[in-house]
């Protein structure tokens, strides 16, 4: 219905003078020009193959994210990280001590710190000019339940935005119980309701992301949130979040293990966006005969 002939038919048959409009009778009488059945089958086959590739990529993303989360929980929640002999620390009798700030036992050699000691809350500003739907982040294109991001449906037309860079952690500050969080794989800008956290030390980044993506952290943020209809997290409250601090060597091992998974996830996300755009661009061209498939 987006081709010139259909548009001309709709304009010619619209009823009313001041505000021409359409009804179901007019729409039901539109003659559609369709490819022959063989071409239709070819089109279905091509577009289905694109959809299947997107589904496969999505399944791999889910499995990689689940694997990363499992390793984090095993090492930093259950404290069964590899000891000097490669055995799970706590299950193998590793020494534990009770920590009053965390109200739980942690490994003997671990310390306790607040989030502000290992992360900065970034407030660098930049112009909105030059941003695209792929690197402008608002609360609207951050996905619930740690789902990452999708292309933005709109771009700011004035003012300045918060600048973020690769390996920053972006957190939607509206309704924190939605658990919108993303480990950035690019440079861009975000709205004021998206907070940008940056690890003070690069080797902390992957562990910090998993720590802040945990249910425990979102529950903590929700407790300190202000407002009833649209609660917002309190920044100072967030920065006081108590954390059991692992040794640097363990964080480096986790970073090396997690980084390839994160890179693959980012690559597959981008591929899915490209494939979806390709599918949506091809469909009208194939259906109105501007493009054909040779077998």
UniProtKB/TrEMBL annotation:
Pfam families listed in its UniProt record: Methylase_S (PF01420)
Q: Which GO terms describe its biological process?
A: DNA restriction-modification system
Q: What is this protein called?
A: Type I restriction modification DNA specificity domain-containing protein
**GO molecular-function annotation terms?**
DNA binding
Query: In which domain of life is the source organism classified?
Result: Bacteria
Q: Which UniProt keywords apply?
A: DNA-binding, Restriction system
Q: Does the keyword Zinc-finger apply?
A: no
Q: Which family does it belong to?
A: Belongs to the type-I restriction system S methylase family.
Which InterPro entries does the UniProt entry name for this protein? Restrct_endonuc_typeI_TRD (IPR000055), Restrct_endonuc_typeI_TRD_sf (IPR044946), Type-I_RS_S_subunit (IPR052021)
Q: Which residues form a coiled coil?
A: none
**Key word Nucleus present:** no
Q: Where does the Type I restriction modification DNA specificity domain lie?
A: 8-65
């Amino acid at each position: 219905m987006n081709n010139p002939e259909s548009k001309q038919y709709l304009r010619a048959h619209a009823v009313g003078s001041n505000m021409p409009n359409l009804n179901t009778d007019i729409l039901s009488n539109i003659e559609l020009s369709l490819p022959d059945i063989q071409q239709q089958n070819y089109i279905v086959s091509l577009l289905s193959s694109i959809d299947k590739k997107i589904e496969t990529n999505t399944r791999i993303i889910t499995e990689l994210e689940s694997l990363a989360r499992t390793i984090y929980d095993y090492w930093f929640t259950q404290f069964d990280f590899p000891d000097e002999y490669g055995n799970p620390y706590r299950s193998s009798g590793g020494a534990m001590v009770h920590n009053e700030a965390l109200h739980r036992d942690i490994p003997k050699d671990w310390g306790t710190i607040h989030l502000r000691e290992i992360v900065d809350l970034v407030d660098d500003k930049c112009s909105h000019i030059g941003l695209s739907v792929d690197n402008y982040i608002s609360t609207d294109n951050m996905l619930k339940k740690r789902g990452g991001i999708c292309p933005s449906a709109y771009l700011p037309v004035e003012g300045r935005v918060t600048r973020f860079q690769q390996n920053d952690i972006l957190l939607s500050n509206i309704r924190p119980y939605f658990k919108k969080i993303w480990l950035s794989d690019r440079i861009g800008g975000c709205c004021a309701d998206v907070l940008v956290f940056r690890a003070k030390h690069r080797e902390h980044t992957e562990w910090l992301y998993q720590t802040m993506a945990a249910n425990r952290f979102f529950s903590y943020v929700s407790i300190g949130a202000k407002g009833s209809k649209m609660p917002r997290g309190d920044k100072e409250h967030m920065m006081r979040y108590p954390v059991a601090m692992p040794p640097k060597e363990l964080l480096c091992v986790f970073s090396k293990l997690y980084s390839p998974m994160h890179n693959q996830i980012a690559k597959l996300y981008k591929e899915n966006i490209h494939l979806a755009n390709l599918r949506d661009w091809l469909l009208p061209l194939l259906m109105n005969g501007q493009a054909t498939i040779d077998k």
